[in-house]
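Hi support team,

I've been running sequence recovery on a batch of backbones for a student project. Most finish fine, but this one hangs at about 90% for roughly twenty minutes before it completes. I'm not sure whether the input is malformed or the queue is just slow. I've pasted the structure tokens below so you can try to reproduce it. Let me know if you need the job ID as well.

Thanks,
M.K.
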């Protein structure tokens, strides 16, 4: 079984009881399947796996710190999936929220590769609403603010990361508009 199939089954088992959270995850993974053509073949399954696992830290049995990127990444590292753990830990520029929560040092346990794969994961997450609907990144930010409140670390972390996230999203959108969609691996 490849890593994307494993990730789908594992995430479904852990998160599907949460209802809408699983709907969001499945839709982010579907978006990842669509944009994975931007990546070299050997990176496509990693993006899809990370999409399925990006919110696994919301599973109640994993919620140790209450910061889902870190909680999910710690499990994935224990399971031997170090690269995916790094993508999950740092998805959607989680470092900014980690700083607000005093968890920056803990998050630094994981590699932040800053690659096209991580940018594509952010794109998929920020163009998918909480119930799986397509939305713009701006709509997603407003949705997060409405659900969490404007003084919440989730909202403020996203706002702090916004220019970095928009750079990644512009890069993905530019590649999606190109007639030849597959790109060469970028240096890390």
């Amino acid at each position: 079984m490849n890593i994307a199939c494993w990730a789908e089954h594992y995430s479904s088992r852990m998160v599907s009881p949460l209802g809408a959270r699983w709907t969001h995850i499945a839709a982010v993974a579907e978006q990842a399947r669509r944009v994975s053509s931007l990546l070299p073949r050997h990176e496509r399954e990693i993006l899809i796996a990370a999409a399925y696992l990006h919110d696994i830290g919301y599973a109640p049995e994993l919620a140790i710190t209450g910061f889902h990127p870190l909680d999910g990444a710690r499990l994935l590292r224990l399971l031997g999936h170090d690269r995916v753990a790094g993508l999950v830990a740092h998805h959607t520029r989680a470092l900014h929220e980690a700083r607000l929560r005093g968890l920056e040092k803990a998050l630094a346990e994981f590699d932040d590769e800053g690659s096209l794969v991580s940018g594509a994961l952010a794109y998929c997450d920020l163009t998918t609403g909480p119930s799986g609907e397509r939305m713009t990144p701006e709509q997603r930010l407003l949705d997060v603010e409405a659900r969490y409140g404007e003084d919440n670390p989730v909202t403020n972390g996203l706002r702090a990361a916004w220019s970095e996230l928009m750079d990644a999203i512009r890069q993905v959108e530019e590649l999606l508009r190109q007639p030849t969609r597959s790109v060469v691996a970028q240096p890390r």
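--
Follow-up from support: It reproduced on our side and the slowdown came from queue contention, not your input. Residues 76 and 175 are 30 Å apart (CA to CA). No action needed from you.
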